[in-house]
Amino acid sequence: MATERYSCVIVGAGSAGCVLAGRLSADPTCRVLLLEAGGSNRKREIRIPAAFTKLLQTGYDWNYRTSEQPQLSDRRAAGPGPGRVARRGRLGDATHHPRPHPRAYRHDRRARR
Ligand SMILES: Cc1cc2nc3c(=O)[nH]c(=O)nc-3n(C[C@H](O)[C@H](O)[C@H](O)COP(=O)(O)OP(=O)(O)OC[C@H]3O[C@@H](n4cnc5c(N)ncnc54)[C@H](O)[C@@H]3O)c2cc1C
Question: What is the torsional sign of CA 77, 86, 92, 42?
């Protein structure tokens, strides 16, 4: 059996895992293995803003449920949990891009000088 060697192993090809893998692989001496529990991200709804509701409890997410909720007659609710899909852990998500007021960045800019 062939043995592969890697400089580092990243578990989870979600938002953080993909950024990390991209940065680390910029160094040609660094061999990166990125592991993902989910499958392909080639589903149309993954690319449509706010269509994540069509993907919940379908195998494209982790099918998390809440604990029993007294306010729901002790039923367990299905909530929008994390995605389980390569390069879209966030399931395409709602595609909200919060844009803060420019003043919010002033402190950052001063800190970098
Ligand atoms: C329904 C929903 C909508 C959202 N909408 C927005 C939005 O509009 N705008 C926004 O900015 N943020 C949004 N978010 C938040 C955003 O998705 C998260 O903040 C972000 O994805 C977190 O990144 P992460 O890398 O920590 O985790 P994730 O992106 O969840 O990545 C984790 C990855 O690890 C994999 N994984 C887990 N366990 C294992 C294992 N044992 N082995 C292998 N792989 C594993 C998972 O399958 C997943 O792909 C949303 C989140 C959800 C759930």
Answer: negative
Query: By the 8 A CB rule, do 46 and 55 touch?
Result: yes
What three-state secondary structure class fits 34? strand
**CA–CA separation, 34 vs 25, rounded Å?**
11
Q: What is the pLDDT of residues 19-73, one digit of tens each?
A: 999 999 999 999 999 999 988 888 888 877 778 788 888 888 888 889 999 999 9
What is the CB < 6 Å shell around ligand 1? 11-17, 35-38, 52, 80-84, 89-91, 93-96
pTM for the predicted model, two decimal places: 0.79
Residue with tokens 């529990």: 37
Measured from the Cα of 62, ligand 1's closest atom is 47
Q: Where are the beta strands (DSSP E) in the chain?
A: 8-11, 32-35, 65-69, 75-78
Nearest alpha-carbon partner for 39 in 85, 98, 91 = 85
Q: What's the whole-number average pLDDT of the chain?
A: 82
